[in-house]
């Protein structure tokens, strides 16, 4: 129920957070016009260089709002990335049956549905990629008839889509036997979501469960598979239950560091905390084409793991990464100041706190905080009493005090700060 409530709540606010265009596309393959719905992310105009994954919705006339609602809700909490959605209207004149018609003997697309297949692969995708800023990561989704039809894109040697969301598919003849073999031989990373419900036709539900049983035996590391059977859902309400799980399955790697990830994968490391963070964002970029600055919350999670394990030297590498992602902010100086403070080198810690004071605030790091930290650490400097007596003695005592606070910003030799940071 929580999935259903979240989707309904987000759908209620769709008009406030998205841009939806209706396009009448003149298709040579379909020999006529087809109505398309294009939903652009809220940040699309504000960030003219950013690119977004692409989601193609068959049955876009009724699947657009549920998918869009989930994505709006997820992106609000930074759990799901923003996505360009293109919905295909198939509601007019029994169009979906024509688009997805199959040969009764072979179970393969017939003449009209071959044209529809070509429309998506040869006309629609190139059009969207030309007119909008998309990444190479593409998702396709459908319900019952269209959910079954979208599987035919997997029959190609080089599948057009990276992720497939099949909501209660009406499987054509032999598909539950043929498709597991195709999924088992996938050479590239592939996401596949499948669902059914007690409210489905019993014969079709049995075939879907049989299909699932065969996929479960696949050992292909390239296949990321998820199946759900909803006990208290109808053929139609399962759509609202399925969509959040499907999207979170696909974009799990792109989510912020969670408490579970921190406790099971990060703080348990003996070393390499900063490398873990770099690898996480490399995966996001390589998998989905999403290139964003590292989240501040993820920086803080790695910092917490470093401090908990007392591996203070790693804060140097974290500072370099901070300067790369937020070059005008005080984050990099804060990490170095923290490193020197933890290692007991308070004079150097003060210098970096004060250096950060002159830069832009970020998240919970403020100028007041940086200044207060510096002033607090200054009180810890050992003060030598002034020696009364001869001038030479007095000068010598002063010189000793000065040497306690080195004039150079270069760190101690046991923990070298990189050339990039010193500059």
Task: Describe this protein's structure.
This protein is an alpha/beta fold and 423 residues long. It is built from 18 helices and eight strands. It has two domains: 2-254, Alpha/Beta hydrolase fold, catalytic domain (Rossmann fold); 259-381, Tetratricopeptide repeat domain (Serine Threonine Protein Phosphatase 5, Tetratricopeptide repeat, Alpha Horseshoe), CATH 1.25.40.10. It has helices spanning 2-12, 14-17, 60-76, 95-99, 111-131, 145-149, 175-184, 202-216, 238-250, 259-266, 273-288, 296-308, 314-325, 331-342, 346-357, 367-378, 391-403, 419-422; strands at residues 19-27, 32-40, 52-57, 84-88, 134-143, 163-167, 190-199, 223-234. An eight-stranded mixed β-sheet has the order 1-2-4-3-5-6-7-8, sandwiched between helices. Strand 6 (163-167), helix 7 (175-184) and strand 7 form a beta-alpha-beta unit. The longest helix is centred in the first third of the chain and has 21 residues, at 111-131. The two termini are 55 Å apart.
List descriptors:
single chain; 423 residues; alpha/beta; Rossmann fold; 2 domains; 16% strand
Q: Could you provide a short overview of the structure?
A:
This protein is α/β, with parallel strands linked by helices and 423 residues long. Helix 6 links the parallel strand 5 (134-143) and strand 6 (163-167). Strands 1-2-4-3-5-6-7-8 form an 8-stranded mixed beta sheet, with helices on both faces.
């Amino acid at each position: 129920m929580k999935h259903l409530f979240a989707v309904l709540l987000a759908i209620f606010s769709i008009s406030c957070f998205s841009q939806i265009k209706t396009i009448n596309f003149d298709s040579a393959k379909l020999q006529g016009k087809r109505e398309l719905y294009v939903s652009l992310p809220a940040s699309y105009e504000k960030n003219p260089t950013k690119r977004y994954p692409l989601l193609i919705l068959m049955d876009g006339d009724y699947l657009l709002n549920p998918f869009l609602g989930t994505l709006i809700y997820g992106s609000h909490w930074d759990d799901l990335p923003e996505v360009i959605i293109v919905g295909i209207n198939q509601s007019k004149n029994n169009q979906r049956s024509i688009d997805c018609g199959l040969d009764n003997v072979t179970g393969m697309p017939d003449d009209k549905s071959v044209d529809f297949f070509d429309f998506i692969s040869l006309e629609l995708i190139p059009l969207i990629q030309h007119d909008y800023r998309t990444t190479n990561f593409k998702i396709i989704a459908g319900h019952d008839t269209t959910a079954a039809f979208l599987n035919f894109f997997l029959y190609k040697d080089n599948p057009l889509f990276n992720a497939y969301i099949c909501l209660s598919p009406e499987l054509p003849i032999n598909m539950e036997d043929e498709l597991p073999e195709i999924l088992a031989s996938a050479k590239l990373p592939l996401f596949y979501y499948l669902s059914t419900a007690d409210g489905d036709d019993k014969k079709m539900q049995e075939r879907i469960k049989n299909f699932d049983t065969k996929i479960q035996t696949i050992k292909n590391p390239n296949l990321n598979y998820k199946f759900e059977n909803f006990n208290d859902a109808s053929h139609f309400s399962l759509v609202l239950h399925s969509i959040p799980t499907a999207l979170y399955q696909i974009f799990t790697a792109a989510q912020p560091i969670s408490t579970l990830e921190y406790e099971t994968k990060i703080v348990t490391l003996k070393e390499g905390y900063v490398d873990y963070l770099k690898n996480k964002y490399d995966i996001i970029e390589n998998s989905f084409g999403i290139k964003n600055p590292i989240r501040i919350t993820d920086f803080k999670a790695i910092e917490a793991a470093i401090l908990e394990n007392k591996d203070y030297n790693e804060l140097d590498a974290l500072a370099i990464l901070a300067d790369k992602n937020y070059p005008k902010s005080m984050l990099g100086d804060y990490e170095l100041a923290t490193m020197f403070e933890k290692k007991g080198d308070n004079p150097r810690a003060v210098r970096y706190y004060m250096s950060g004071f002159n830069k832009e605030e970020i998240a919970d790091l403020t100028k007041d905080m940086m200044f207060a930290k510096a002033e607090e650490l200054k009180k810890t400097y050992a003060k030598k009493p002034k020696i009364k007596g001869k001038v030479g003695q007095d000068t010598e005592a002063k010189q000793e005090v000065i040497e306690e606070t080195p004039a150079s910003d270069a760190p101690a030799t046991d923990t070298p700060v990189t050339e990039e940071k010193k500059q």
